[in-house]
Amino acid sequence: MASVTLAILAFGLLRSGVNAWDEGIKASCTIRLITRNAVSFTSLLPISYMDKISRIAGVKAVSYGSWFGSISVNKKSFFGSFAVEPRTYLQVRPEFVLAAAQREAFLRDRRSCIVGQKTMRQYGWKLGDAVTLSSAVYPGEWEVIIIGIYQGRDKYADDSQLLFHWEYLNETLKKTAPDIADKVGFYLAWLHRSGMSAEVAEAIDRTFKNSLAGTMTEPEKDFLNHFVSMSDTVMLLIRMVSLVIIAILLAVVFNTMTMTAHERISEYMVFKTLGFRRHHLALLLVGECLIITMTGCIVGVVLTPLAATYLLHNPTGVYFPPVTVTPETIWMDIAASLFIGLAAPAVPVYRTIKMRIVEGLRRTG
Fold first, then answer.
1. Most buried in the list 108, 192, 225, 271, measured by CB within 10 Å?
2. CA-CA distance, 99 to 119, in Å (whole number)?
3. Which residues contact 313 (CB under 8 A, 6 or more apart)?
4. What is the rounded distance in angstroms from the CA atom of residue 264 to the CA atom of residue 256?
């Protein structure tokens, strides 16, 4: 039963992790465009592109930011963080809900930051705490003050990010790394209405076609699809591993039932002498196997959401929602357990009902 529980738990966690990638795409905004460097995700864009993008027809608002990817002071923890232009960034991401007073305080103080409630709980932070940020992307350290806590507007909105002022980051980079100063990682364009993404994206890229830093603009959903496609091999491997777990589970239960039938063969033969028919013995073996697999399945299904909550947290946050266990995953757990419970005892049942009583009673182990 413990083996079945662990297998169902592992299967559920793997499937839930894969589903999180798919749910992130479904949750994307239909009137938001992402502009990045055409060369790669890691290449930067000049800050001067901001004004030109804002003047393109169809663009209601535009903001910018850079992936910072904070590492805690003890170098053992990692959480998603972005250096952003706070006023416009909160405007183009209305799914981040922040109290009005905290919002105004965040806009005023360049050394302040806001943090999602999930990360606040994870690290035990509170308002007014000072946090020292370091990054593998940018050299140096930045101390920020937590001045606000935001929540996700819906269950798919990420509430694990830390947002601080891009200007605060940039003023230090001008001194320590001038070659990457006055540059941003991406632009976010908020459109007037849906249905105009293609033409606006084409206009943005055409504007910077002959510049030193060409752009690639696409709807948020297409950006996510492109980003996820780079990990298709990983996702395929995870799906294959989840199926391998079921195959291993089948082998374990089959071995268990074979040993059980072999060790108790004389008992089954006694049952035959007392008048038990073949279907009675088959029901005994199948029923025992189903009790083992379904008990383990129930325990595994109960533990999977708890394990997903504490183990499958998302450090990058912005593009993928927190992991949840879907009903589809639970039904797959139940179906796999039923299949194994019925398939594993097939050979032991066949051998038991075909064996002659005298031959079975003669066996000693």
1. 271
2. 17
3. 118, 122, 160, 322, 323
4. 12
More confident residue, 227 or 241: 241
C-alpha 260: how far from chain center = 41
Residue-level pLDDT at 361: 76
Task: Tell me the pLDDT of the chain averaged across its residues.
Answer: 82
Residue 111 and residue 143 in contact, taking contact as beta carbons nearer than 8 Å: yes
Ranges 40-44, 190-194, 237-241: which has the least confidence:
237-241
The rounded distance, in Å, linking the Cα atoms of 149 and 97 is: 9
Number of other CB atoms surrounding residue 18 within 10 Å: 18
Please state the rounded mean pLDDT for residues 242-249: 78
**What pLDDT, on a 0 to 100 scale, did the predictor assign at position 364?**
56
Selection from 115, 93, 103, 126 nearest residue 159 by Cα: 115
Rounded to whole angstroms, the Cα distance separating 259 from 136 reads 54
CA distance 43 to 58: 26
Helix (H) or strand (E) holding 25: helix 2-26
User: pLDDT tens digits for 95-106?
Assistant: 899 999 999 999
Which of 286, 313, 316, 364 lies closest to 16, judged by CA?
A: 313
Where helices occur in 185-277 by DSSP H, the ranges are 197-207, 220-229, 232-263, 265-273
Distance CA(331)–CA(359), nearest Å, equals 43
For residue 77, give the amino acid letter: S
For residue range 149-165, what is the model confidence (pLDDT) as tens digits?
Answer: 999 887 667 788 899 99
Give the integer Cα–Cα distance in Å for 53 and 184. 14
* Under 8 Å between Cβ of 186 and 62: no
Strands 70-71, 130-135: pairing kind = antiparallel
Tokens 């005298």, residue?
A: 358
* Lookup result for tokens 């105004």: 104
